[in-house]
Specification:
2 copies of one chain form a homodimer.
Chain A (H helix, E strand, L loop, with lengths): L1 E8 L6 E8 L6 E11 L1 H7 L16 E8 L11 E4 L2 E3 L5 H4 L11 E2 L18 E5 L4 E2 L6 H4 L5 H11 L7 E5 L3 H12 L3 E6 L5 H6 L4 E4 L3 H7 L3 E6 L7 H7 E9 L7 E3 L1 H5 L4 E4 L5 H14 L5 E4 L4 H9 L6 E5 L4
Parallel strand pairs in A: 10-11, 10-13, 11-12, 13-14, 14-16, 17-18
Antiparallel strand pairs in A: 1-2, 3-4, 3-8, 3-18, 4-5, 5-9, 6-7
Helix pairs in contact in A: 4-5, 4-10
Chain lengths: 346, 346
């Protein structure tokens, strides 16, 4: 077993604190990665706090993992020692269902294995990237280009793919008006991808102060949703709204901003169900859809696209001892736009 | 002005009763139709009772109208005296917006004119098909084949197009599993179209007694949604659910029956908003969509398709004096599957 250092929440009541634990030995198809950086996702906090479902404790969060291969199992073909490597939200899946066969491991019909707060096929808990090393089957390890700043690549593994995947699935691009709702970790990546794909991108926000940031990210337009004049000008105009907000919000309002045949795509999940009047959908053949992360082939495609197009996340690198403070700032939206832990500080 | 006989609700409190009123004289582009049959839609009752919005009274309901042309305006090109003709839910629209130009008059951005309980462009109220004649601009009049039984064609003008349109828009057909929720006026047409388009059609119902009816309509399968064993067998299997129910129902349950990328299409509108958890959409890239009736070109296409494929509604012809009784039976689902008023009884 591999003696591993990390940060864990011992219970749902606890703050994160140093914790030593064991990872499995490197199997024939495993890649052993020294973790260099790990992004801090809002879902890390949701899971530590059991916001969505009862978690497995102690919990080592982190699913935006980048690092360097230190060892490969005897049968590993895709990776070599010394290469950069990444791990996202998944470390395994059934691999035999219809979805897995299509590279849609995120929708594995038998349940994929989450990078942390999940259970491997042998029933043992999974531990995430707030740690110095990880061992993952090569099929769930991604290639990372040496071209991009590694720390800023980390958030692509969750925030990146979560926004890239729906924009690709619904073929968002030239000729489309895309609104991005929420300008956080996911939202800022949605703006970057939307712009890169050729859509006209509008950021919707309650805070006029975010306009400068939105434009700096490449957004073409900015609408303050509490300004009735600005709102009137965009009623019925968006082909897509990419909704990254995980707090309660008024779906009828946002549906009124969609054009005929428009699609509101949820990638953030508020704890309460959305309230959606059927008439708000029927009067313009509108849809409310959802999308979850992305499969392994698409995640690799996204990483390659980012390397080719020089796209990374805007980040603030932190010492792991700063993590509780970082969570506090994340909750109040005080981050541009993703905290990334420098694992050298562990 | 044309002296017209009909049945109207004088107020939201009143039953329907005979009422004489005037229709406009036949203008150069108008078609004057003697109404022979008019279907009874659940929305007739919703509107008389102000269930959705405050209505315009006296109200003459009816938007599933078939009859014979008795006169045409001097500039009418599409119709001749003596031909069969139909009128659906719309009698006008702005004709200049992006949607109208595409034949999507049902989504007219400036507001289409409903066949009844609406206001014409001059502000005068519109009166529907529970009457002996109607005058409509030729662009909103449909050609009806002599091949099919006329009374059974009437419901195609609303129940037919409302189900045909989304099945065509989402290209439902061979290789798809389609579930139909609700086996009433809309639902029974959804089964017929779904089967005709080549989908595998399953009727979802709480009533085991409806299985025979569903199969008689052509449905391949029938699932009693209160039977956990039957439900377990269809979890995650449907590519589409066509939801014709206008009473409250549990969307999370139905979303769990959708396959990955599945679409739940609402054509019925419950008075309360649907409760839809984002996670129920994200875990399988699912969508909840809505669709409203259809545009004029598509309605004609549907009528022609029905003539070519011998598709009509299953109906019970009634005397107009039976209308209140018919409403009572409609509310308790005691109709197979549409009442149609024989206007000779007026």
């Amino acid at each position: 077993m591999l003696q591993t250092k990390g940060y864990a929440a011992q219970t749902v009541e606890s703050d994160l604190a140093p914790w030593n634990f064991e990872r499995r030995d490197v199997g024939p198809k495993d890649v052993h990665i020294e973790i260099l950086f790990c992004g801090v996702c809002h879902s890390d906090l949701h899971q530590i706090k059991n916001d969505w479902f009862p978690g497995i404790f102690p919990m080592v969060p982190g699913h935006e993992i980048v690092g360097r291969v230190v060892r490969t199992g005897s049968d590993v073909k895709k990776f070599k020692k010394g290469e950069l490597a990444g791990v996202g939200c998944l470390v395994d899946s059934c691999r035999i269902c219809e979805n897995c066969k299509q590279g849609l491991e995120q929708y594995c019909l038998n349940g994929s294995v989450a990078t942390y707060n999940g259970r491997a096929k042998d029933g043992s808990p999974t531990y995430g990237g707030y740690s110095n090393q990880i061992v993952v089957h090569e099929d769930f390890v991604l290639h990372i280009s040496e071209k991009l700043p590694l720390s800023a690549v980390a958030p692509l593994l969750c925030a990146g793919i979560t926004t890239y995947s729906p924009l690709r699935f619904w073929k968002v691009g030239k000729g489309h008006k895309l609104a991005v709702l929420g300008l956080g970790g996911l939202g800022h990546m949605a703006v970057k991808f939307g712009v890169a794909f050729g859509a006209e991108v509008t950021v919707l926000s309650t805070s006029p102060s975010k306009e400068k940031d939105a434009k700096a990210l490449g957004a073409h337009k900015f609408v303050v949703t509490t300004d009735s004049k600005q709102v009137a000008a965009v009623k019925g105009t968006f082909n897509f709204i990419l909704d990254t907000v995980s707090a309660k919000h008024d779906m009828s309002f946002y549906l009124s901003l969609l054009a005929t045949n428009g699609i509101h795509i949820c990638v953030g999940a508020p704890p309460e169900p959305h309230l959606i009047p059927a008439f708000a959908l029927m009067g313009g053949r509108k849809s409310v859809s959802g999308s979850g992360i992305g499969g392994l082939p698409e995640t690799q495609e996204m990483l390659d696209y980012c390397a080719d197009n020089n796209i990374v996340s805007d980040i603030e690198i932190i010492d792991i001892k700063y993590i509780q403070k970082a969570y506090e700032r994340m909750v109040r939206g005080d981050v541009h736009y993703r905290f990334v832990i420098d694992m050298a500080t562990l």
